[in-house]
């Protein structure tokens, strides 16, 4: 069990990793060793995530989310497979931590009378400046 937050933990079996050849640094090593990591996590069928967190996670995932509801995180920045693996996991866990934070609903507020007066005064001032720029016919 991998702890993400105090309430959320993911079982190791829910993550699947595949290793592919990287296009990143490594010289000739790139052609021989599969150091890039593709980490897959099925959000839609995960029993570890509460429903509201899963919905926010799918929205946050963007282009990393497949049509089947699987998040694919690719890491190929490092030469070593282990470092890429750790980076991919950390990026997925950060995404889940972001989704775990419940957004605070916005409360509609009215601008104060002074704020409205100040805004209208600024509009009148700008209007006056622009009216002075106007070219009037026969003003020559």
Summarize the structure.
By secondary structure, the protein is α+β, with helices and mostly antiparallel strands. The protein has helices at 51-61, 81-100, 113-133, and strands spanning 2-3, 9-10, 15-20, 36-42, 70-75. 37% of the residues lie in helices and 16% in strands.
How would you describe this protein?
This protein has a single domain (2-100), classed as 2-Layer Sandwich (Double Stranded RNA Binding Domain). It contains three helices and five strands, in the order ββββαβαα. The chain has helices at residues 51-61, 81-100, 113-133, and strands spanning 2-3, 9-10, 15-20, 36-42, 70-75. The longest helix has 21 residues, at 113-133. It is elongated, with a radius of gyration of 27 Å. The model has no long low-confidence stretch (mean pLDDT 83).
Keywords, separated by commas or semicolons:
alpha+beta, Double Stranded RNA Binding Domain, 3-stranded antiparallel sheet, about 35% helix, two-stranded antiparallel sheet, about 140 residues
């Amino acid at each position: 069990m991998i702890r993400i937050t105090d309430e959320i933990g993911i079982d190791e079996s829910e993550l699947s990793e595949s290793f592919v050849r990287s296009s990143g640094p490594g010289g000739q090593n790139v052609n021989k060793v599969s150091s890039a990591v593709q980490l897959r996590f099925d959000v839609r069928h995960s029993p570890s995530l509460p429903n509201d967190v899963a919905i926010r996670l799918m929205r946050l995932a963007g282009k990393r989310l497949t049509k089947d509801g699987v998040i694919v995180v690719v890491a190929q920045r490092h030469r070593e497979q282990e470092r890429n693996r750790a980076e991919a996991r950390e990026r997925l866990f950060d995404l889940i931590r972001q989704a775990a934070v419940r957004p605070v609903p916005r409360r509609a507020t009215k601008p104060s009378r002074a704020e409205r007066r100040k805004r209208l005064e600024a509009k009148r001032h700008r209007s006056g400046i622009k009216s002075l720029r106007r070219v009037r016919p026969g003003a020559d």
